[in-house]
From TrEMBL:
Keywords: Cytoplasm, DNA-binding, NAD, Repressor, Transcription, Transcription regulation. Its main location: cytoplasm. The gene is rex. Belongs to the transcriptional regulatory Rex family. This is Redox-sensing transcriptional repressor Rex.
Length: 248
């Protein structure tokens, strides 16, 4: 996943909460991994976890994890580690997950249908509250309990439902127009699945998901491993090293 970065992290401007940490983008990207690992550990009944244990569960190295968590003011206790519940609370606070965010989905084709039915959003603090499409034949269709509405209703519904995040799953050719509608409706965070770059005002954050790009990056690593194996002495990369290189 990549980010089109505009403007500053919320909370950094004048009048911001002074305690809000200034986090590097790479750290922000790893926090959800730590959170997922912590939830899994919590489900096993663990009260504390060492930095090495959490790093292994999250698939990063422990020095990087300690540095990331130090940005949150979380250093763990020597010989004990990190308190699992406390660290979950800290990360959820920083990611703003202590409030449930309303999400709308635009484009109810193959991908949109799959996303609309994905239970994982709700369990991670996001509720899909509205579905939109431009195709009249889809309007009124019920998908996982929600009606598909016409895109022309987005402005009104965005205000009524307090939509915070818009997900675009339309063809690339329609994505900019959809982004404009979302922005006009006051939505300031967009997750874009369409393979194109969006032009948005500086106060709008855009994250782009493109599985083809991820596959191309993996292809690079396959290529690199093959060329290393072909070297005299047959050097090859480690599995852990590859995971980090791809994920960072
Ligand atoms: N990011 C990824 O990894 C990934 C993976 C698969 C597909 N995609 C992309 O996701 C998008 C959707 O793919 P799909 O296979 O679901 O396509 P699809 O053609 O099945 O569905 C697209 C939907 O968007 C709707 N639409 C078109 N213009 C619109 C507009 N202006 N406003 C609202 N709705 C509009 C169409 O009516 C249709 O229902 C494409 O851009 C595709 O390239 C991305």
């Amino acid at each position: 996943m990549s980010q089109q970065r505009h403007g500053s992290t919320p909370g950094h401007g004048a009048g911001a909460v002074p305690a809000f940490p200034d986090l590097p983008e790479a750290t922000i990207a790893r926090l959800p991994e730590y959170l997922r690992a912590l939830h899994n550990l919590g489900e096993t009944g663990a009260d504390t976890v060492s930095s090495e244990g959490l790093a292994a569960a999250a698939g990063v190295n422990s020095a990087k994890l300690r540095k990331d968590l130090s940005h949150l003011g979380s250093y763990g206790t020597r010989g004990v580690g990190y308190d699992v519940t406390l660290l979950i609370e800290q990360i959820e606070y920083v990611l703003g997950l202590d409030q449930r965010r309303a999400v709308c989905l635009v484009g109810l084709g193959n991908l949109g249908h799959a996303l609309a039915g994905y239970d994982g959003f709700a369990s991670r603090g996001f509720k899909i509250v509205a579905l939109f499409d431009a195709d009249e034949s889809k309007v009124g269709e019920i998908i996982h309990g929600l009606p598909v509405r016409h895109i022309s209703d987005l402005g009104r519904v965005a205000v009524e439902e307090k939509i915070a995040i818009g997900v675009i799953a339309t063809p690339a050719g329609a994505a900019q127009a959809v982004a404009d509608v979302l922005v006009d409706a006051g939505v300031t965070s967009i997750l874009n699945f369409a393979p194109c770059v969006l032009s948005v005002p500086s106060n709008v954050d855009v994250r782009k998901v493109d599985l083809a790009i991820e596959l191309q990056i993996l292809s690079f690593h396959e290529h690199r491993k093959a060329s290393l194996t072909a070297l005299p002495g047959g050097r090859s990369a480690t599995t852990a090293g590859d995971q980090e290189a791809v994920g960072s």
